[in-house]
Known about the structure:
The complex is a heterodimer.
Chain A: H1 34-59, H2 73-80, E1 89-91, H3 97-103, H4 107-114, H5 139-152, E2 159-164, H6 171-183, E3 187-193, E4 196-197, E5 200-201, H7 202-205, H8 215-218, E6 222-226, H9 230-245, E7 251-256, H10 275-281, H11 286-296, H12 302-324, H13 344-354
Parallel strand pairs in A: 1-2, 2-3, 3-7, 6-7
Antiparallel strand pairs in A: 4-5
Helix pairs in contact in A: 1-2, 1-3, 1-11, 1-12, 2-3, 2-9, 4-12, 5-6
Chain B: E1 14-18, H1 19-33, E2 37-41, H2 57-61, E3 66-68, H3 73-85, E4 89-93, H4 104-111, H5 114-117, E5 127-132, H6 147-151, E6 157-159, H7 164-176, E7 181-186, E8 194-198, E9 210-213, E10 218-222, H8 225-241, E11 245-249, E12 252-254, H9 258-268, E13 271-278, H10 283-294, E14 304-308, H11 319-322, H12 326-338
Parallel strand pairs in B: 2-3, 2-4, 5-7, 6-7, 10-11, 10-13, 13-14
Antiparallel strand pairs in B: 1-8, 6-12, 9-11
Amino acid sequence: MLAQFVPDGTAPSPIQYLAADGALAEGVTPSMSDDEVRAGLRLMMLTRAFDTKAMSLQRQGRFGTFSQVTGQEASIVGSASALDPRIDWVVPQYRELPALLRQGLPLSSFMLYFMGNLAGSRIPDNVNILPIQISLAAQIPQAVGLAWGLQLQQTGGVVIVYFGDGASSEGDFHEACNLAGVLKAPVVFMLSNNGWAISTPRHKQSAATSLAARAPGYGFPGVVVDGNDLLAVHAVTSEAVARARAGEGPTLIESVTYRMGPHNTADDPTRYVVASELDAWKPLDPIARVQRHLTARGLWSDDQCQVVEAELSAEIEEALVVARAAPPPSASQLFDHVYADAPATMLRQRAARLGVTA
Amino acid sequence: MTATTNHADTPAFTETMTMIEAIRDALTLEMARDERVVVLGEDVGVLGGVFRATDGLQQRFGERRVIDTPLAEGVIIGAAVGLAVSGLIPVPELQFLGFGHQAFHQIGQQVARFRFRSQGRHPMPITIRSPFGGGVRTPELHSDAFEAMYTNTPGLKVVTPADAYDAKGMLLAAIRDPDPVLFLEPLRGYRLVSGEVPTGDYMVPLGRSNVVREGDDVTLIAYSAAVQMCMKAAGVLSSEHGVSAHVLDLRSLVPLDVEGLVAAVERTGRVVIVHEAPLTSGFGAELAATIQREAFYSLQVPIERVTAPDTPYPLGGTEDFYVPQISDVVRGVLTAMER
């Protein structure tokens, strides 16, 4: 009697286009052009270079607590590259820098946010991304609402929302998937399963053999993809985006990847990550994989790599100059943008704090 | 009701409406006027809401603008954030404020501070409607007066109309307000309170209190359902104790009408604050603190607070011991008078 819906203990093999050595799987046709792959590689390399730079600045006390992308670049870049930034939206968590850049966010703006400057919270009006979300999973219902709003107004836009294996344990994830299924909202749920929620490993997060297997319970498809494979992530996401745009509803993508660094700059993963597991993921690096693929096809070389790395380093330095030139934080910022029409009581507090007349 | 309520600017064409009718009238008017307005929540569509506040809206405006959602308060409010980002004006309903806890993470951390977190890019013109308060024998966990949780949430406005006229005028003002508003409706006032309500468009500004009864001996300060109780208590005080009570309906907690509050306190120098929420950290504490700071020298006696005790909201049979009653208000006033 209890055998109608049972876990069968198996998880599907993640969809893969590129093997670890960069070889393209037989019979697959990439959804990215060579130019798009090179652009994706450049964005992944920028992210990696920024991680290194920002970690160094954080250790010097010149950058706040932040989370590196290292190891997950293909997962973020491959999925974000499937969007049309003019009409589609990215709803991020906090570890999706390259998705934000692809949508058009200036790197200096991202830096300001993590330097603790409220100016970094202001995303330019023509850049379709919601604020970085720190309260995990709270962004998922918002993404569904946004997708619903785009659907009601027939903009043709699609929303992709990012979150992790940990956030998928939150009630907001469930509530949001459930509503999206009912509405057939044009949304793609991008679950970055990086193996860890700070120190909690994936197997303690959920007894489900596959997190994507939850999707049919909400009435839409789920898929597991190799998150370290740029081409596979792009292909799968493109299909999900097309589905959403055609009015066929949401998709849950579980992108299986690995967090190669700490949870954030305040974390010490040596207390819980087993070195052998980390070592096993090292040969699966998403950037090296694309480089090998392009090199084998004569589209990439060490010389080109050095040129690009120098360009990226200069780009990061330029953004840092812009960020450092921003006005420093001030007490008056506490009171800006709290209300359009502020209560007199708050205005009196403002005056008292700033030593001016209300 | 209308005889004791001061609505000097009432337009000529009026109808007698209950509070629930006035709320429905406001929703209908605004949905017809502004096609960006959408109503969402549990049972708001076909059923018209468990209290019928949204009755007829779906038939008139369609399923795309009046949406029955799954039973999940968090996503009702969270989705409203996204709807607002897309350019719509959501009016979500929380069926009872007691279930607001299920959505509080989206209200407190998201709705209230999305304008701030986006540094002005994404205003949240959301009006969250919710009935609250007791006295109608609801099942457990429905009826708590949790308003103070929300008044301690910067970025949010919290308003508490007490009669039909204010309910319509303040709801129209709330929906048109660029800031998020928690619009709290007195559960037991829905059909108990009726009055003359203009049939046309008008707004009652958010943040202005209203003197609903003039008096000289003691000032009763209340909001929402407690206003009616104070009015009845004022009648008893006048007829049985010869005490003339001045009754101030705050109408709005955030923004708070400090000037109106001070004027009402200065009128008598004796203050009794009445609310249904428990005493400790209830909104009365904020009022008392504001009064002692702004009107200290006009106080003749310590401020009295008539509230629920610091205990959980009980089952219906015990409710009348918990929710302040007219006799409790009278006793509070007599205490203030005898000092």
